[in-house]
TrEMBL record:
Residues 211-312 form the Fe2OG dioxygenase domain. This is Feruloyl CoA ortho-hydroxylase 1. InterPro entries: DIOX_N (IPR026992), IPNS-like_FE2OG_OXY (IPR044861), IPNS-like_sf (IPR027443), Oxoglu/Fe-dep_dioxygenase_dom (IPR005123), Plant_2OG-oxidoreductases (IPR050295). Keywords: Dioxygenase, Iron, Metal-binding, Oxidoreductase. The keyword Metal-binding applies. One of its GO terms (biological process) is coumarin biosynthetic process. One of its GO terms (molecular function) is dioxygenase activity. It comes from Raphanus sativus. Belongs to the iron/ascorbate-dependent oxidoreductase family. The keyword Oxidoreductase applies. Its cofactor is L-ascorbate.
């Protein structure tokens, strides 16, 4: 018999983990039991709860850049400036059709509304492809405190592989989103590259900057006691670039490089949030900044987001670009194999900016 919502209780933390992680209910399933108190394993350490109290204390804002401005040099300059000073910016009039964005958001809701038995076909244990993974939190085995988020992660190998293994409810929409955003991604990389003396985005450079792509469909359900936990903990991305589509709810915060304050990234209809990842910070020898960000849990709304992580090829060796150090600039980072770097990131809990130290000289 299904538990009645009002009386649903877990006897101990192990039961919660069993229900959420092992049985594949995720925090969405947990939220829908109607629990009134946040289970202990989601309670974040004191310093994280403290940040929750002070996230909205600033009027700083990340730049919003209109990519349709006919003065292309101005657009490029604004993007490079934002990449250096903020590591984050929003783009509007980016050329990706708005219906593509609406379709992938609708598909994300469809996916998470599937029955548990359907979603759990894609858990680590059950998925027929290691490139398709339904999960919860970040690294439940490495974390002291869990994060209030479920996700489906799709690593793109080929159209055929996606056709065969990605979930039917979202595969066409996710592929369309990925393919239709590529022109914009190339444009961003061209602008950022030119500013680093990279004359053109040729095939070699394209493989280095965008040789692999991962799409995540994220779901942040309504949370009891949202001030005690996080949707996503403090981290910077390991990508070259991250292209984020967020819905209208809000909750993403970025750490200002100027002040150290946590700055909200307000949802702008039809926009993308773009951020520099660690790989780009390393390739640019620290000129472009990969910045810490986090997501609040929400007590009254379900939120979704759909990031595309644009990454080097796993076997790429990343280090400061020859074009950057050609003028005698001292390299700050050593060369690392990108897949080793990523493995190091996923082995530990979210810990702010500590991953990039792995590549420091």
């Amino acid at each position: 018999m299904a538990p009645t919502l009002s009386t649903f209780q877990f006897a101990d933390p192990a039961e919660v983990t069993e229900f959420v992680v092992n049985k594949g209910n995720g925090v969405k399933g947990l939220s829908e039991t109607g629990i009134k108190a946040l289970p202990d394993q989601y309670i974040q350490p004191f310093e994280e709860r403290l940040i929750n109290m002070f996230v909205n204390e600033t009027d700083e804002a990340i730049p919003i850049i209109d990519m349709s401005n006919p003065d292309e040099d101005k657009v490029a300059e604004a993007i490079c400036d934002a990449a250096e000073r903020w590591g984050f910016f929003q783009v509007i009039n980016h050329g990706v059709p708005l219906e593509v964005l609406d379709n992938v958001k609708a598909a994300t809701h469809r996916l998470f509304n599937l029955p548990v038995e359907e979603k759990s076909k894609f858990t680590k244990e059950n998925s027929l492809s290691r490139n398709v993974r339904f999960g919860t939190s970040f690294s439940p085995r490495a974390e002291k405190a869990l994060e209030w988020k479920d996700y489906l992660s799709l690593f793109f190998v080929s159209e055929d592989e996606a056709e065969q293994y990605w979930p039917d409810v979202c595969k066409n929409e996710a592929l369309d989103y990925m393919n239709k955003s590529k022109t914009m991604v190339r444009k961003l990389l061209k602008y950022l590259g030119k500013n680093l003396n990279v004359k053109e985005l040729d095939e070699t450079k394209e493989l280095l900057f965008m040789g692999s792509i991962r799409i995540n469909l994220n779901y942040y359900p309504i949370c009891p006691n949202p001030d005690l936990t996080v949707g996503v903990g403090r981290h910077s991305d390991v990508s070259s670039l991250t292209i984020l589509l967020q819905d209208h709810i809000g909750g993403l915060h970025v750490r200002s490089l100027m002040s150290g304050n946590w700055v909200h990234v307000p949802p702008v209809p039809g926009s993308f949030v773009i951020n520099i990842g660690d790989a780009m910070q390393i390739l640019s020898n620290g000129r472009y900044k990969s910045v810490e960000h986090r997501v609040l849990a929400n007590g009254s709304n379900n939120r979704i987001s759909v990031p595309i992580f644009v990454n080097p090829k796993p076997e790429s060796v990343i280090g400061p670009l020859p074009e950057v150090v050609a003028n005698g600039e001292e390299p700050v980072y050593r060369d690392v194999v990108y897949s080793d770097y990523v493995r190091y990131f996923f082995k530990k809990a979210h810990d702010g900016k500590k991953t990039v130290d792995f590549a420091k000289i």
